[in-house]
Amino acid sequence: MPQRNREFGKFGAQGIKGHEAVARQLDRLAGFIATPVTQRRGLLARLHYLTRTDHAKAAARQAGLTVTDRTLKAWLEGRRSPTKRNLERIDAAYRTVRRANVSRHLLARLNRQGRGTRVEFHPLNQSQVPRPLQRVVDYRTLNVRRWDRIVAAWAADDGATLDDVWINDVVVDLGSQWGEYEYVTNIGFAA
User: Fold this and answer.
1) How far apart are CA 143 and CA 119, in angstroms?
2) Structure pTM?
3) N or C: the chain end with fewer CB closer than 10 Å?
4) What is d(CA 105, CA 99) in angstroms, rounded to the nearest whole number?
5) Phi/psi at 116 (nearest 5 deg)?
6) Is 138 left (phi over 0), alpha (psi -120 to 50) or beta?
């Protein structure tokens, strides 16, 4: 794409890629467990989520949590504590399984039977850019009707695909100024 930023932040502009802001907002809507996995309460909440049913156990194993049932039971009873590496695996497996479980429901809420969801684009922060180099970037809104590929890329935790889909399916609908919204301070929407 000709308008993609090559040297973002060269003159002091601050912001994040639009697809990263979308992933953050979808994570907020997914309702992950707030307590960190390093605390006992957070660890138990994640383990209960991942071991509640046979289906959940199978999804956790597929997501990368490959420990024995005996080890899981020891962790749940508090007889043993997971290593730092296993804590990371537990958290990653939890996020993967939670995204897969929530994505179908979230997709239905965002698509709203074809009516879509209003998305707010908050422009990048130019407060550190010298005055002559600043440009006018307005707050914009857009109604997004096709969330299928966006939610699928988010659920798969595929940042490259999410970036491609976000730019090519959504941001280009802003018209000739779409390149100004590749980096933003925030993307807002509700479901």
Assistant:
1) 6
2) 0.89
3) N
4) 10
5) 80, -170
6) beta
Q: What is the pLDDT of residue 3?
A: 60
Write out the two tokens for 151: 């939610």
Specify the DSSP class assigned to residue 78. Answer: T
pLDDT tens figures, 88-143:
999 999 999 999 999 999 999 999 999 999 999 999 999 999 999 888 889 999 99
Query: In the beta sheet, which residues pair with residue 187?
Result: 121
Listed residue (146, 183, 170) closest to 5, CA to CA: 183
Q: Which single residue is written with the structure tokens 């390093």?
A: 38
Q: Which residue has the tokens 């046979």?
A: 54
∠ at Cα 103 (157, 99), nearest 5°? 45
